[in-house]
Amino acid sequence: MPNINWNAADYKKDFSFVPAxxxxxxxxxxxQPGSTVVDLGCGNGTLTEKLxxxxxxxxxxxxxxxxxxxxxxEHPAYPFLKGNAIDFDLEEKADVIFSNxxxxxxDQRDQQTMLCNIxxxxxxxxxxxxxxxxxxxxxxxxxxxxQCFAERGLKYPRTFYFPTIGQYAPMLEKxxxxxxxxVLFDRPTPQNGPDGLAxxxxxxxxxxxEGMEDVQKEDIISDAVSRLKNRLYREPLWIxxxxxxxxxxxxxxxx
Length: 255
Description:
Blueprint: H1 8-14, H2 17-25, E1 36-40, H3 46-53, E2 57-62, H4 65-74, E3 80-82, E4 94-100, H5 111-120, E5 122-133, H6 139-151, H7 165-175, E6 178-190, H8 196-204, H9 214-232, E7 233-234, E8 237-250
Helix pairs in contact: 5-7, 6-9
C-alpha cells in the first residue's frame, strides 16, 4: 500500500461506509471458522473485528501508522502489523487474505508483484477475497477534476487503478490463482452532509493536489462540486458514482 497520510478521525466520522460495504464481502469467504485470515489494508480495524466475530483467527496488516494506531486503540484484542501489500511477509501462511477498498491505491506497475506476493503468503488451497474500485469508478468526479485542472493549464494525474474483469483476471491467473468468482457492478455511494462531495475529494484525492497552494486547491474543488451538482446531488445527499470489482481466487493445491 502507498503510504497515504490518512486523517483517521475524519475517515471514521464521514467515511464509515467503506468498511460497512466491506461486511458483505466477508460472505464470499468459503473457509470455515477457525481459519486464519489476514485483513490486508485493515485501516482502523473495523472489518478485522467483523472477521473475528465470524470465528476467524485474524491479523490486520496496514501500511499507515495513523490507521494502525487507531486500530490498536479501538480493537486491542487483535494483532495489527505494519506491512505493505507489495512485500509483506507472514511468519505463517494464511488460509485467507481478505482485502477491501485497497488494491485501487496500488500503482498499476506494482499490481502483478502484489498478487504474486499475496499468492506466496497463502497456504495451498488458500483464497484471496477482495473488492476494490473497478473500471469507471467515480469517473464523473475524476473526469470533472481533470477538466478543471486542464482549464488552469494543469495536468490531473490518474493515480488510481480501476481495471475491468478482463484486465485483472489474467493477472490473478499469472500469479498462480484460479479465479472462482469475478463481478463488476455499480454502487452509487451516498456521502454525509451538504459538503459530502468536497469532503470526499479532500479525503481520497490527495496526490493531484500535492504542492498546490490551498487557495487554488479550494478553487478547483469548489468549481468541480458546482459542475457536478446536477449529476451527483440528490437532496439532501451527494452520491458518488462508485463502481466495484470483486474476486475470489484460490491457490490450488497443484501449485
